[in-house]
Amino acid sequence: MQKLIGKMNNKHENKRIVSGVPGFNRLVEGGFRENSVNVVIADPGCGKSTFCWQFCAEEPEAPALYVSLEQNLDSVLRDCRDIGLNNFEDKYRRGRLQFQVAFSEDSDMTSGEIGLRFFMSELPKYLEIIRETAEHYHGGIRIAIDPLTPLLLEIPDLNQQRNAINRIFTSLRKIGTAVVTIEKGFGESLAKVPLFLADSILELEHIGLGGIYNRTLRVRKFRGSAHAETPQPIHFETGKGLSVYEI
Ligand SMILES: Nc1ncnc2c1ncn2[C@@H]1O[C@H](COP(=O)(O)OP(=O)(O)O)[C@@H](O)[C@H]1O
Ligand SMILES: [Mg+2]
Questions:
Q1: Protein residue whose Cα sits closest to atom 6 of ligand 1
Q2: Which partner from 32, 137, 156, 203 sits 20 to 30 angstroms from 13, CA to CA?
Q3: Where do the domains of the chain lie?
C-alpha cells in the first residue's frame, strides 16, 4: 500500500505543463512543473514575448493570464497576427485568455510604479477571484509576466526586491504555472534576485551569424529535473513561432 501511495505521489509530482514551444518539452522531462515560476532571460529580439504568447495560447480551454509591462493589447495582437500565431487572438476572443496591461503610456507614473501597484494590490484581489477557476485545471492557470524588468528597476534595494519578488512568485505558484521574462543587460545585479527565486531559468540567445546555432535556448536551471546541458538551436517560423530544432 505504502508503495502504491508513493507511486501515486510521484505520478502527481511529475505532471508537466507543456510549454507550447515545439521541441522544448523534451529538453525538460515533458514541460514545466505544475505551480512553478519559470524565468526566460534574453536580450531584446531574442523571443521572450513570443515564448510567452505560445505558452498562453497552448491548450485552448486552459485559462491564461498575460500581464504586459511593456505592450498594449493592440500591439500584441498585431505582432501575433504578423507572425501568424493566430491561436493567441482566438483564445483571447473566446474569453479564455485575460490580457492585463500593467503600465501606462500617458501617465507620470513609471511602468515600474504601475507594475508594482498591480502586483502588490490588484493581483492579490484578482487572485482570489480566479483561484477557483484555477483549481479546475491541471497546473492551474497559465500566467505570463512580460517583462518583469520595469518592476526590478523600480526596487533597486536588493533586500526589498527579494521580499517583493518572493511574494509575487509565491502568489503566482498558488494559482498556476508562470513564465516571467527578464531583459538581459538591464541591471545585471538586479536580475539575480528573480533568477535565484525562480524554479527554472531559460536563456535565449541570438548571435546573428546565421547557421543552425544562430538562435539558441539554454536551460540554465530546472528544479527537480535532469535537463539538456548545452545551448539548443531554435528557429522562428511564420505561423508556428519559436521551436527547438530536432537534432
Ligand atoms: N517568422 C520569423 N522569422 C524570423 N524571425 C522572426 C519571425 N518572427 C519573429 N521573428 C523574430 O522575433 C523577434 C521578436 O521576438 P520577441 O518575442 O518580440 O522578442 P523579445 O520579447 O525577446 O524582445 C523579432 O525581432 C524577429 O527577429
Ligand atoms: Mg518582448
A1: 236
A2: 203
A3: 34-202
Looking at residue 231, the DSSP 8-state letter turns out to be P
**What is d(CA 75, CA 173) in angstroms, rounded to the nearest whole number?**
28
Ligand in closest contact with the CA of 85:
1
pLDDT (tens digit per residue) in 72-130: 999 999 999 999 999 999 999 999 999 998 887 777 888 788 888 888 887 777 777 77
What fold is seen in the domain 34-202?
A: Rossmann fold (3.40.50)
Is the pLDDT assigned to residue 9 strictly greater than 80? Answer: no
- Count Cβ atoms within 10 A of the Cβ of residue 231 and give its class: 0-12 exposed, 13-18 middle, 19 or more buried: middle
Q: Which three cell numbers stand for residue 76?
A: 500584441
For residue 65, how far is its CA from the centre of ligand 1 (angstroms)? 21
More confident residue, 158 or 123: 158
Q: Which ligand is nearest to the CA of 68?
A: 2
